[in-house]
Amino acid sequence: MALFSGPLPLIPPAARQGGEGQGPGPSVVALGGGHGLSASLSALRLLTQELTAVVTVADDGGSSGRLRHELGVLPPGDLRMALAALCDDTDWGRTWRDVMQHRFTSRPGVEGSLDHHAMGNLLIVTLWELLGDPVAGLQWAGALLGARGRVLPMASVPLTIEGDVLSEVDGALRVTNVSGQAKLAVAAETGNVSNVRLLPASAPACQDALEAIELADWVVLGPGSWYTSVLPHLLLPELRDALCRTSARRCLTMNLSNDTKETQGMSAIDHLTVISRYAPEFTVDVVLVDPAVVGDHAAFERAVAGMGGRAVFGTVGVSTGKPVHDPLRLATSYNDMFGEN
Question: How far is residue 242 CA from its own chain's centroid?
Fold first, then answer.
């Protein structure tokens, strides 16, 4: 423990290149999980030095699920991805990003205990065990990587997400209760997700995350898996209250595809309806959306106005046409948004 008793180490000089001479930028809190949050962080780290990621902790599949089950820790996978997204585009940043994302693969015919574990997950859990504090462990990991911002869990305990999946079987409607993020994502392929909830229902939110939201200039929610990465932030009571009370301006970033595993048959407006259904008191200032995913622009603008905000249309996807956000295009849209009064 003596090794960790002092202040956090200085970030190596190579990891600080590229940001000198620029102002700190607005204080931004980005919420989500997985690839969606990685996309927003990759854009936002180009615009501000005051960036905080608040990450879902309900993952129970793959490497994260195994570590959560075996060690009783927060699932580290989405936290790892957020840290990797905050790495600089320098030799130091790219190297540590690749180290964090590296997965072990056992040789053919061998089922090793490290198979499919991500190196970053093991590093994060090691820091947690040595320090006994998830927030401090993530701070140390961020310092090692030279991360442009900090990463926080949304809750201080692991969460379980469950929901009802509605499907039609032999002409009759079947309602199946599915518990666990991994199982829910798979079940959503055969039906519509409804009545999503978090367990424990009144789990404590991370206090550092609540403080960051209170002090932020902007809060950015999404993109990401709508029911399992975006919505959970509005299902946790303390976090939802903080998001509704903050004086920060609120931006909801839409996905580049409406028809995902979790949202089959849903329109862009349906996505907004889900947010309003579970958190009717949550209002937005801006909804950022690629025009390609909205059919009736006027109807979408009216739906956004019903949530208290305005729609901003911007081409934010990669040029290949795949439903993947382009960091530079997304950064341009965020920069324009932040510059408005």
Answer: 17
